Amino acid sequence: MSGYNPDELMVVEAARHINDGDVVLVGTGLPMVAGLLAQRTHAPNMCYVVETGPVAPRVLPTPISVSDPRVMHGAVSHGSLLSSLGGVLQRGLADVSFLGGAQIDRYANLNSTVIGNPERPKVRLPGSGGANDLASHSPRILIITRHERRRFPERCDYITSPGYLDGPDARKLAGLSVPYPEISVITDLCVMEIDRATGTLGVARLAPGVTFDTVQQNTGFDLHRPADVPEISPPSGDIVELLRREVDPGGVYLNG
Amino acid sequence: MGKSARNKLMSAAEAVERFVSDGAVLGMGGQSIGRCPMALAFEVARQGKKGLSVVGCNLAMSMDVLVGSGLVSRTECGTGNLERYGTAFRWRAAAEAGELAVADYSHLGMASRFLAASLGLPFMPIKSLLGSDILSTKRGEGPDPEYVLMSNPFSSEGEPVALLPALSPDVSTVHAQKADAAGNFSIEGFSTHEPEMVKASKAVVVSCEEIVDPEYFRENPGETTVPFLFVDAVVHQPFGGYPTSVYGRYEHDREHIVEYQRVARAGGDEYADYLRRAIVEPGDFDGFLDWALTDEKKAALRDEMERLI
Hints:
The complex is a heterodimer of chains A (256) and B (309).
Chain A: H1 6-16, E1 23-26, H2 29-40, E2 47-50, H3 81-90, E3 96-99, E4 103-104, E5 110-111, E6 114-115, E7 123-124, H4 131-137, E8 140-144, H5 170-174, E9 182-186, E10 190-195, E11 200-206, H6 212-217, H7 237-247
Helix pairs in contact in A: 1-2, 2-7
Chain B: H1 12-19, E1 25-28, H2 38-47, E2 52-55, E3 58-59, H3 61-68, E4 72-77, E5 79-80, H4 89-96, E6 101-104, H5 107-118, E7 123-126, H6 133-136, E8 148-151, E9 160-165, E10 171-179, E11 185-186, H7 194-200, E12 203-211, H8 216-219, E13 233-236, H9 254-266, H10 268-280, H11 285-292, H12 295-308
Parallel strand pairs in B: 1-2, 1-10, 2-4, 3-5, 4-6, 10-12, 12-13
Antiparallel strand pairs in B: 7-9, 8-9, 10-11
Helix pairs in contact in B: 1-2, 2-3, 3-4, 5-7, 9-10
């Protein structure tokens, strides 16, 4: 048995993308776990803002909803959707947002609305929620997802949340206030990052033991093959222990 | 025509009969598994108010029972979702069957539309949604546009900004922790889109865990979320948000929500059986609570919330 599972690897890598003092907009799930880990380790002054409004909560393990009392515990204010998504995000006070979606395409656009024709959906998904707002207004965007070919199509069926839309300057042309965000996609196989020259995702790091070819086989769009790709550092035993004992002690999210 | 500080206490049945009409644009409070106006939504379902447009941000079980009862023709929202417990399944099924019009926005998009109406303004600019299919799938021009794209007239750059129309529900339903008979009420914990939505609505029905003395909000004005001016009916309904959580009062009931999601996903007879047993047969929300909850379970949900705040 290896010392960590794929969820733990993704969470640890995502936590490394959070800097001390960052204002982080987050929902629940693996992103929340990654944020809590960062806060317990190298980023004690990270400030959570939850979509529903709470500012700087002392989150109790392990919340399952943005309406969960665990994400309000010890907050300095409770707030509202308007105060968090308007007054913090659109106002320009967020540093990092976490996002997810059923589909992520070459330009890091996200779909969480429909599979198939929007007029008569094959699968109706939950919709944007705050995701479009987070993607529109965050200078840094982190996406955690399992790496499966169907999740990475050439083009999303529907752009719920904007990545680079269809080119390097497309966000600026569309009028988005953050025209050139950093976007990192953290999967169980690799980390992909936006190349600002093309507005497209490229492989920046590989998970231990994973090859570029494996990533390409599991991705629905062509990836540029870099000459040399560094490996994601595996988490230390101490960090995995912290995750399992304190950050998500019930294994609500870190179960595989 | 003001909404004076008269006594507005009434039953859920009377409030829904008086203020919710067939075809109404119905504002829905709460979010996901938190503080949804379950008693009021169940009463709307019980009275069979038809052709509703349900509007809100994160619509969940209180919307789903209305869709599952065949009473909703349209939703406008950010999401239909119970997060870890899954999609709002009757809503999803109706959308996939083409039986329900779903107008998608982001949460900030919906909150901005309510904010505009709450300020008496016709529209609100927003910098979200730009470049997305949430806008591109809507009418952006013509006689009845759903949004308008314009250049910021105050900037030499003239960068694009989207204008969204104000949204004023015919009636909004919300569940709060405290209210008085005149309709002053207090939401504790996160307040979702409700302050803006309530102030934007033509009529407002608020249910609450606790009725406080008429002097309470005069002595504690910092606690007032919305003053009586905006409110038409006050319904005293302890556990009126059950099975969702109410901050400071009780945690959500995981077992009930998991079972609801199971039957909502299954649809058909199993779902019809839930509606019959939860809504029709009990006759009112206290009857539903008697069917769904023991005193021990109520105490456990209260204790769990106590531990978490």
